[in-house]
């Protein structure tokens, strides 16, 4: 389970982090937001099961947030933690199905009881949702899986064409008269999370809905059939054997039907006419080629004919070649300077924009070129010892999600950010060759000990030393047996114990001097580490003396 803490006071968020026994309630991930607006931006991607929220916050307050959650994410449980004993606040909490209303100051027993109740309710409802989804999935058993497999085999196995075609005709799936055919491929964007949410992130249900729409336009006139490609999760194939010249018009009708039902337009790649069943693999490849050659900068064109695109290619600029930019990228990577890397990638993407045409196949080719370039730089730099460096580079890049070249909503900025991230990690890995893991962690430790009074985050350290957060976390814990936040807290408490020997210093001043934002949080961390409060620690020192 995931939880989200929403409060405009960081000390309150930290107090909640410390007071709730998260693991006991089955909660493994916790994130924070400073107001309702920030929470609304985080929730669609983060999808917390539980939200703990304040009422009075800037931008969007607690009432705005609970109303929004109730409307858009009714499965999410929320608990209100407020400093105001206000009847209207309580009434709204009940109205929007909140599970509890807790008053500040927060009591450990009360908040853990509320979290346990909300988590238990969520788990029970989740079990019911899963059972309901399973029932929905069983709807797909009515689909002719057998015919789907047969039709797919026409696209992949020419040796079985004669036998499969006979079976399809015997089953009445493809008529005896089918001789000349055309194909189209509908390709779903797997990154369209909003669309997938409508179907409970169940691909089978989404495909079932799309197939119903397609076949409604095809089978009423007996002109063709739509089927799911058995080996490709996100593709639907349309086979027409009648009125094949009107395929484009019929696809527009299908797309209009999809838009009316799902508020989406889909992209279709089409083939020329060919013989059935012998030309089916070739026609299918033509459809995929049509999709791969579609111009991503044109937003309102959805039916793609690869031959038509290639006939216009003479009027387009020649595709940009990455090879002419390799030298500038290599210099930037070896410099170890993020700003130079960003400039090099910006120069490359600027030229891409100037070409005027960007296709999925070009993006895939450029991505392969950049991967080859990275491997080449590693080999040239590390020589015979390049294999460990290759492994380290792959690990550093594992946290980056590669953009999908077939994504419906294209963003060159997304690719620019991705390529910049790859090159920064390549630069960091090459830099680490001259600095062993032990030396790096010593430098990081020295930096923490010099800046422990300030907010020192893993993100800041990773950016400063040009190494991935995962690599730093792993190496730091190997050397110190604790993670970075715990090491910082231990260091702060050790410094605080020295300052506590001066009776003239107030607790709040000591807390601030060692890097804690308030006395209460300082006391909680101190007691968790030392077993006694700072005041008790000082008293024992006084008694001893």
TrEMBL record:
Residues 2-119 form the Response regulatory domain. The modification 4-aspartylphosphate is found at residue 54. It holds the Pfam family HTH_18. Residues 442-540 form the HTH araC/xylS-type domain. It is found in: Cytoplasm. Keywords: Cytoplasm, DNA-binding, Phosphoprotein, Transcription, Transcription regulation, Two-component regulatory system. CDD domains: REC_YesN-like. Gene3D superfamilies: 3.40.50.2300, Homeodomain-like. SMART domains: HTH_ARAC (SM00342), REC (SM00448). InterPro entries: CheY-like_superfamily (IPR011006), Homeodomain-like_sf (IPR009057), HptR (IPR051552), HTH_AraC (IPR018060), HTH_AraC-typ_CS (IPR018062), Sig_transdc_resp-reg_receiver (IPR001789), Tscrpt_reg_AraC-type_HTH (IPR020449). This is Two-component system response regulator YesN.
